[in-house]
Task: inverse folding
């Protein structure tokens, strides 16, 4: 029986082998699959890797990642306690938003990632990842509000949050994001399986 991490590694190899989003792949340094604990009950999902992520092969390692680490610490969590990924696994050129086609092409792989990890809580970071799970999402209205989302036989509690980068561009968002994050992590703890 393969471990969850081995299954995730196999899935990453399959993405490369099948040439998913080949145009993106050709201009990226590498596939950025995810990072953290495959046996966690909490998964964070952003939209796509940026420059630092593309270089290091891990999600959320730039300035937004440092803020994410700060928030994890405030919630008494570490990166090794959770799993962090993105919908799109290659960096879009010039850090542009991922296209609807790119998100569509990677969606089945993200769902397989979630099926392997089997979290109880999915915390989306930013409107792109939030809207992928909650189509009528308005991030300014819905941030921090948990919703049950069903996908095949899996049910997740999805908590949409602002992207950590929002706080870097707008200092007044920082406390909103920290407050939402702490509430979301508390809710996630309540959802943990015994």
Result:
């Amino acid at each position: 029986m393969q471990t969850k991490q081995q299954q995730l590694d196999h899935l990453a190899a399959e993405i490369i082998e099948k040439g998913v989003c080949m145009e993106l792949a050709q201009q990226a340094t590498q596939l950025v699959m995810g990072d953290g604990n495959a046996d966690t009950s909490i998964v964070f999902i952003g939209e796509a890797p940026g420059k630092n992520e593309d270089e290091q092969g891990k999600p959320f390692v730039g300035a937004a990642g440092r803020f994410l680490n700060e928030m994890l610490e405030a919630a008494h969590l570490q990166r090794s306690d959770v799993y962090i990924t993105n919908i799109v696994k290659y960096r879009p050129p010039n850090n542009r938003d991922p296209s609807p086609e790119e998100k569509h092409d990677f969606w089945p792989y993200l769902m397989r990632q979630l099926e392997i990890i089997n979290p109880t809580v999915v915390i989306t970071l930013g409107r792109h990842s939030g809207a992928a799970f909650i189509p009528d999402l308005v991030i300014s209205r819905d941030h921090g509000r948990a919703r049950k989302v069903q996908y095949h036989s899996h049910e997740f509690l999805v908590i949409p949050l602002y992207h950590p980068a929002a706080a870097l561009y707008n200092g007044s968002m920082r406390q909103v994001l920290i407050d939402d994050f702490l509430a979301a992590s508390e809710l996630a703890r309540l959802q943990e399986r015994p």
